[in-house]
Write a structure and sequence with these properties.
The complex is a heterodimer of chains A (720) and B (376). Chain A has 18 helices and 30 strands. With 720 residues, chain A is α/β, with parallel strands linked by helices. The radius of gyration of chain A is 31 Å and the shape is elongated. Chain B contains 17 helices and one strand. The longest helix of chain B is centred in the middle third of the chain and has 32 residues. The termini of chain B are close together.
Chain lengths: 720, 376
Amino acid sequence: MDKKLGLYICTGCSIGESINVEKLSNIAKNALRIPVVKSHFALCGNEGVELIKNDIKNEGVNTVVIAACSLRVKYEEFDFPGCIVERVPVRELAVWSQETPEDKQLAAEDYVKIHVIKAQKGDIPEPYVIETVKAILVIGGGIAGMTAALQSANAGYQVFLVEKEPQLGGFVNKLYKAVPTAVGEYSEPLIVDPTIDKVIKEVESNPNIKVYKSAKVEKTEGQPGAYDVTISSNAAGSENSEVIKIGTIVLAAGWRPYDATKLEHLGYGVSKDVVTNIELEEIAKKNNGKILRPSDGKEAKKVAFIQCAGQRDPNHLPYCSAMCCTGSLKQAKYVTQNKDATAMILYKDIRTPGRLEYYYKAAQNDPGVMMTKGEVTGVADAGNGNLHVEMENSLLGKKVKIEADLVVLATGVVPATIDDPILNLQYRQGPGLPDLELYDGFADSNFICFQYETRRTGIYAAGCVRQPMSMAEAQEDATGAALKAIQAAEHIAKGIAVHPRSWDETYPDPFMQRCTSCKRCTEECPFGAIDEDEKGTPYFKPNRCRRCATCMGACPERIISFKDYHVDLIGSMIKNVSVPDDEDKPRIIVLACENDAYPAIDTVALQHGKIDPAVRIIQIRCLGSVNLVWLADAFSRGVDGMLLMGCKHGENYQCHFAKGSELASYRLGKVQETLGRLQLEAERVAMIQLAMDEYDKVPKMISDFVDRVKEIGPNPFKGF
Amino acid sequence: MPEQVTTQTISPDLKFVKDIIASGGESLKKCYQCSTCTVVCNVTPDNNPFPRKEMMYAQWGMKDKLISNPDIWLCHQCSDCTAYCPRGAKPGEVIGALRNLAIQHYSPTPLAKMVGDPKYLLMLFAVPVLLFLAYIVPKGFLDISAIPRGEDGGIVYSKFIPIFPAIDVTFGAVAFFAAVCFVLGIKRYWTDLSAGVKVQGNLMDSIKATIIDIITHKKFEKCNVTKDRKTAHLLVFYSFVGLTITTTLAVVYLYGFGYESPYPLYNPLKIIGNISALALLYGITLVVGNRLKNAEKAGKGSYFDWLFITVIAAVAVTGMGAQLFRLADIAILAYPTYFAHLVFVFFLFAYAPFSKMAHMVYRTTAMVFAKHTKRD
């Protein structure tokens, strides 16, 4: 598009008093050759906005550069559809965070210049719109899956529900009784009939839901909005296979109990009277509430519950399965339906969070429910047909044996995704969700804002496949995931990205003629958005993309671009930052990730914290998008140091694109070797990981780096 | 209590749990073993302190660990634990219930069960009522005007119910019965206490130290929440001492000097008796007042407790009333009040080994034992 630039300088918020606006205007007019340059004392007010709108209408301005405040504020006022809008944070980065009048002026001039260049280099996005469907596939017909299906269907979306068993209901089908849903505190009866049948009926009678039973997802091909999902079902003995068009997916594949045969030390498999919590449900269900011992069919009167059996144990499951404490309290009430029976709960800790604390209190009040804390070390034959549960460090004594006629192991939750990709994605990066070992196999995520997000766009996890949780939590989870699936389907239909760039209409547009098929982008994309064709050439599926531009950072040919974000665009900004001739005044460029680092810097400025005048800050999408050529650009211009600020990576990563900052750190390791060969000190480049809440440390982080660079001395390429 | 070194086998006794709940420990199950109680208790020894362990044993129905445990008597029910318990488990009340059960356990007769259970209350009262009615009905004394007067025309209770045999033989027998029951109970208790425990030090020294503790009421000073209990209990305790002296003097007067009641108010016996009676009235009023005042923090108390308090109060009120009505010559009130007084005194002493009155003996024994084993 033919651009006509307009630069609008706001003189409000003390900008006018701190900056020589006339000088700035002259630079813009003469050096930067901007045809329309205006200033106003309150640009964000009606009059100011009208001034800009008037120029758009009458002067043909279509690229609006606003030198005022940060883009994180006043975005509603400065919204001019059809125009490129570029915000120069003069208030924050020049006025509020700089100390001396000279520093303020220099910073303002620099920032105006580089943002004008950004506006000149960028383009208006055109969304990627293909023919899409908004149908939602729900995998798993347990309480989570059925809730997700009903929520989506009731919101008007077509739902396909796939269940592997011949009937819906999931694990609840196995239960004798359920924990009641209480409004206030819990009161007797503490065990009630499960209401899953009602939910099943609701699902099966909903015209918007098509249910596949005894079915599984054979293949998921394509991209969100246009998935081709092959479902195979084995209904009534005949194999059927069907391909359906799907928009987005809720993964609610649930869990299975931990393999109790690994718990021989707790007597499982040794004595018939050692059963799992699931087996106890089956016993109670089969005998209509009577707890009969498997060995002799006699009614059990002294039932010991071993909590955390094979859980919170590095040799088995390292985590807490969240549901077993409440489950055992409930099962203890099965036992004490017989007024002569005692249920003994042996625990490491009782974990009944939230309102379940009231359930714990209510169950505890039963004289027949006895509890003690300690470490169960084993289960042995008592010699009289009963069992001895051996316990150490218990409150009952240092070493005790508790006599029981039945022992119940509270075994834990293993996610369905532990050994089965389930989704069977036809993605170059593999059929399942990546890196689940970070979450012990659960389809969980570190996405701070939306826990249902996975690393496959358009696929949201809910229920026990995501985290161990109670039925009530699973329903909440499923509702959240359904909302995200709906939102994603809607965004994708319009060609807009989803979280975290949920406004973004750009998408990666590679210049394929120059592609060398090195496959770095396909391997490094955190979201598996890039497949390869038969010849091994990368093939972008934009609807899978979250627009982090990690591919852009990866590409050695620098051919991957977004309309308003590409290697040349940021590179040009870097190259146009002023570099002082004075050797005592270093110039350092900070590339700050838009997710945490830049907002942290913005917050420092908002609180009038001071940032070292040596630095110029450029906001980027993600550290993953940093192409190493930018470093070469900067150092060849005489810049003394480069600081990359982004999210934490590693096991507890906070990177909003999961892998971006980790990849940046990896790539940086390589570039530092290269710098060494160029006789440039590797320490001139550094990376800092920080979270938004560490904003108060930002000024020191930056000045420490500046000090280190000062110690190294000026860039020898300065002045060339 | 020695550290558990050998593996102990635990088989919970559900019935005992239910007994504790029925005997005033209804909040027992709320305990979640945080040990706040043990931390705030000023009375417990530092080593192996109470009441958390007792709460745990009680929740699991571990009767053997509790019934013969001297710690339940070292507890003076200050209720600091109950006030600070975050779960409302009221350890003070639970330990109180355990003491009630211990009294029942060591009692050689099933009477203890009956005293602890409100459904036998009428039956227990029926015994003295029928006994004394047996003296007055045949004489036609239900008609008050038929009761002969003294030489000066005043009311003389010995003409209503004769001192001998009605009063002295009855109460002599009652005292003997109670003493025998106490001896049998304490014997069993001491045997359980000392089973497998090595005693240290001189028993006489332990007894001396215990007596000093009791006459000074030193332990009560450690209470925070129910500070006022010291005065109340001290008054009741010393009034009982005074009334014992009064009774002894009366025996001496009658059988030593043939001097029959009623005695004039200036008589030393009357002076001691009346001062004691007033102290008892005031003391028991304080007891009731404190209990009501502290009910929210310390718990409302068990039936067992309140029965004992009520009987003592009734003894004091009817005793004082009988004297006043006699002096005022209001026959219609005087004779029934005196009758009631005899019934309550009977109740208090005949059932002493089975009621809370027995705490006097069991607590003293436990305190001696604790001192003897260097527990306290």
